[in-house]
Amino acid sequence: MNEESKKKSLSDISRELRRVRASDYKMIYINSAGGSVSPWDIRITVGNIVDLGSGEGAIEDSVTLVMSPEHAKAMVKTLSSSVEKYEELFGEIKDILPIIREAKSEKNK
Q: Using CA atoms, how far apart are residues 90 and 87, in angstroms rounded to an integer?
């Protein structure tokens, strides 16, 4: 293995690989995410905030992603890069927490 190939990052290597879809590939929309860690992996559970009726809401979990810490760090870099590109094209993305707090405050009036 030459010196140049040893210096390639994981993102460089993944860009060189052809992407194919699994036979059971799914695309899901999420508007909620939570995570947990262990010494061996990082878990991100994603889902949707749903209305249960009479103004009561809940988070309906869709899937849990389990990955190595190394892959989680690579995923953070990918998400960060995608957010930067989005904001360059469409403007700054507002922080969701103040929006949620305001909605809760309005509901409790």
A: 5
CA atoms within 13 A on the CB side of 90: 7
Interstrand relation of 56-67 and 42-53 (parallel, antiparallel or unpaired)? antiparallel
Task: Give residue 8's pLDDT.
Answer: 65
Euclidean distance between CA atoms 73 and 10, whole angstroms: 10
Q: Rounded CA gap, 61 and 48, in Å?
A: 7
| Higher per-residue confidence, 5 vs 64 | 64
- Give the model confidence (pLDDT) of 58-83 as tens digits: 889 999 999 999 999 999 999 999 99
Residue ranges of the domains in the chain? 18-67, 69-109
